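Protocol step 4 of 6: structure prediction from sequence.
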Amino acid sequence: MSDQLKGIRVIELAGIGPAPYAGQLLAEMGAEVIVINRPGSFVPTIDSRGKKSIVVDIKKPEGISIVLELCKTASVIIEGLRPGVTERLGLGPKVCHDINPKIIYGRMTGWGQTGPWANMAGHDINYISITGALNAIGVEGQVPSPPLNLIGDYGGGTMFLIMGILASLIKAQKTGVGEIVDAAIIDGTTSMMGIVHSLHSLGQWTNKRQSNLLDGSMPFYRCYETKDHKYMAVGCLEAKFFNIMLSCLNIDKVSFGSQHDKGLWAKQNKTLEDLFFMKTRDEWSIIFNNTDACVTPVLSYTEAASHPQNVSRSNLIDIDGVIQTGPAPRFTNSDSNIDFSISKSGADARSILKEIGYNESLIDDLASQLIVYLNE
């Protein structure tokens, strides 16, 4: 693991999506992440890697006591439950700060801790629907296309939660005072939409899909189908890159016309559509390889593992027949030996409890009462 966060203990209340992904990234940066799993089914996924696990029934007072004992030793606690749930359990921010004033309480929700929709159910598609992001994506005249859960859950959610946690850790080191990080997916996504609002104020962006700079309206920033029904991505925004693309396609610059003449875009789109359909994606990839044309193949996520640039960066790694993602970001002056093992639910219970003062007899007693579940 990286040593950036060495010595930082993170308590993660098990969940799905952006909160556990935040825990994964913190673990990859060297933090010790202890996941509080609940009794019942547990599906190990990549966001469990490099973490420790203990299964605790937090609906019982004794289970809450265990989590609070762990919070005394931690720098961060992460939860992704609906507003008010941890307070009702007895694990809210006030309780945690009473026993550990420096702890950072990271809260991950879709709608935020406040507002008329705070307690309403939702998923990524719902959260980004009210930010303007979902409406801006897709083909004009067709329904908006959900961009997986990358923009909402992981972009507007995870990344802003981590930013808030890291900023608060610095503050806590200076002041001795902890923080509550209210990370809402709608907040982070709206923040990322700032460039759209800025361009709109300048008259350079409209609500109509495929009519703006980066949404596929322009011949020099969109995807084209190839002979084998795959695609090439064209992104030559700058004139010098645009001219390199024309050269690689053997297109006469004068006859093709000006890059920014909107009256020519329909004709230019058709010309490029016809040209790209004449060769396969791999044939075009060879032609554009190592050029500054900003033209690249559109790969599937399985194909991405074998692309030379991804291979050289170890972005996708085969671990016992399962493809896992590499670490990001990279640190030049730190070790980055990632623990690719997926934590087994409850496997670390005994060692975790012993570390905070529970003896063998008490641990066995807790297990017999189904407060702690040992998976040894």
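Step 5 (inspection) to follow. The mean pLDDT is 95.
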